[in-house]
Amino acid sequence: FLVCLLTTGTADAGYQYCIVGAGPAGLQLAQLMKAASSSYAVLERSPIAGSFFQSYPRHGKLISINKRWVDSRNTEYAMRHDWNSLLTEGSEPLLFRSYSQELFPPKEAMVAYLNDYWRVNNLNVHFNTTVIDVTRSTDGNGFRVSTRHASGSKKIYKCEVIVMATGLPNLRPGEFPGHEYTVGYDSVSLNRSDFDGKRLLIIGKGNSGFETAQHVYGQTRLTHLVGRQPVRFAWSTHYVGDLRAVNNELLDTYQLKSLDGLFEFDSVNIIKNARGELCLVNDDEEKLKSPDSTWDTDSRQYCYDLAVRATGFVWDSRPTAKLNVTSVFRGKYPRVGNNFESVDAPGIYFAGPGLDFRQSAGGFVHGFRYTARALQRLLRVKHQGERWPAALVDRPLVGLLDALVRRINEGSGTYQMLSFLGDIVLLN
């Protein structure tokens, strides 16, 4: 019995801050906490940092711009145009531009960068540690985090504050009739020859859907993308998460009448007919009608050889399920207040994408590195009694004007997180 205890469980470990996830948001928060001499630990289920980027984007190319050369008047200004590097306080910055020369770099470069960032900053990351669940301590002070190591051993962490920095790791599950006939974005074949002469349906008209189409549309007989609403183009909306030009080559073959197509469909319903084809049932003939489609006039269906689900990603609610943390946007994001704290479970905070839906760049590294810094400062004010960092202006009028002009011309956080982060001037 004693041997069993020693192999399946270890003593509790206590930290003021427990960060779940060693992706870019978790590492950013960890570096800032280390620089502030805070008590923290990062719990990561994989053996490396940034494991999400081992798998995604599925076809290998990031859509975050790697702008290597700018008019570098200072570091702050240069960070306005660096979409991939994390902030570094207290030491020399580690910049992503040394990891790839591509404007849209490969995902492997991000994995290499994040793991070097962890090593160079000597961050306290506990790898191979899966968080099973988070519950409140019986005395009401903080939380108990139950974990399981890859070796099979279990461990309890006692944490005053929890920061969930797991991002959006899960594909949205199939939520429509016939989803069992489709292939998920996570497992779609990367072998182009598998699509030779096929009729391909892609469900989802975001970057994942167009990325998949762009990889194979030279092989398919036709490629159709279906979604609930028209495509939103980043160049039009100015939101970096909408469809980017780097992924939209299929628009050429669509607009130039080469059989590929896009259409809107409120409710997807797929059946398999007697010929083994996957058919999109038409509930609204006028809405679905397209001159380029393979149209079965008898049954009013579009029929395809393959169907791929590319309907986006959602947050992982399982670790906080016992705390009844609720979701918004059809389960895509946790419900979070303007201080990054769960509205359902006080003491649970969130870092990373999903904090400023469609307002600015908070879904990407060049945005949430600043919201992570804001969260770290909020936590220091609330839990350590510190004051928010500020600069004193010596000359009331001239000094204030100089400071404002400098921030307007050079500030990076307010530049990327427009309408979300701002500067405050206090007059004495």
Automatic annotation (TrEMBL):
Domain of life: Eukaryota
GO cellular component: endoplasmic reticulum lumen
Entry GO MF terms: flavin adenine dinucleotide binding; monooxygenase activity
InterPro entries named in the record: Auxin_biosynth/cation_transpt, FAD/NAD-bd_sf
Gene Ontology annotations of biological process type: ERAD pathway
Gene3D superfamilies given in the database record: FAD/NAD(P)-binding domain
A Pfam match: Pyr_redox_3
Protein keywords: Oxidoreductase
Protein name: FAD/NAD(P)-binding domain-containing protein
